[in-house]
Amino acid sequence: MALTSYEAKDLFQWFTDKADILVLDVRNDKDFKRFQVESPYPFEMINVSYYDFMEMEEESVNKVPKGRAIRIVCAKEGSAKYVGEIMVKHGFSDVRYLTGGIKTWGNLLVPKVVHQDADYSLYQFIRPGKASCSYGLCKDKEMMLFDPSRNVDFYIDFAKKKGCKIIKTFETHLQADYIAGSRQLSELTGSVFMGGADFEGTKAGHTPLVDGEIHSFSNGGPDVKVLFTPGHTPGSSTFIIADTFMISGDTVLIQSIGRPDLGGQVDAWAILLYNTIQKVAKLDDSLLVLPGHYMNWSEADENLLFCLPFGEVKERNKDVFSMDETNFIQYIKDNMRKQPAEYALVRLANGNMEQYDAEKQEELDLGKNECAATAYAKAQAEG
Ligand SMILES: [Fe+2]
User: Fold this and answer.
1) 74 catalytic per annotation
2) Which CATH class is domain 109-334?
3) Which CATH superfamily is domain 4-104 in?
């Protein structure tokens, strides 16, 4: 069979279908270790570099088990195609290469229905390459977005398919780990970009959020209530939808809370976060938490949705929710770890204080997030 291509969304589908495939990543060892594709379920992946295939063809081919469906991943596309031709030449019959390279995996958004009835629809857009989630809320012909990523074409297309106009985009905070899409979406669609105090003094072009205010659609509900929850960043906000869902940004995560040390002011921000956790803890246990990030797929439910009642989230994180202020600050400090150097540049991009070309944005935007404050996350980052 001739060599064919596949797209990042196909790979995610094979993963969720638990298809019997073998992922062959042909990037160098360093790039492979830094960032690789992930599945909700166990799967097989090997890393044999493209250079090895060039220099030691026979030996490299022999490292790949025979008789398997091979899905090749590389940085840009060309080397996967090159290796694919070699595999076909050596008798492998089901070989495909990733169109556009691993960056297309990094930008992939997977839409999931969180809620749908005659009144409104709520979607979670999972970004497996970043382990982050953005959200879309549709009412009649209007749509609001929450924490959209820079893959703006996806959101515009999604809104179009639903027959909706994007009217507002909300940012839970000034993101450090990915380039946000709100500013670009407001330029392209005329939607209003709503942001909190993190955006003060920037050139982001936001409309300031007000604590306690309620946003709604032309035809009324569902209500979107703004709740200021400083700590992860001083301007972090949480959005309560229809008194049912809590879009918590990086404040409350399913496994952990958002680390408050990314701004370099750990003492001040940890106290803010401590006070926020005390305030948020009083919210209704039945609210369904929709987080901005996850650490791994074990946090998802059986439908691969990241959505859990707040009571259960508190139970999972009861050490953090029950600590006194002194212990809390100590806990945060104990679990501090270096943040990727790119984060400072991502912040500048998100405040529109610095402009980067598409290639630089792509480079800054690639890789998993580093936003949670737990010993587990610390161990993973340093391991
Ligand atoms: Fe964050």
Assistant:
1) yes
2) alpha beta
3) Rhodanese-like domain (3.40.250.10)
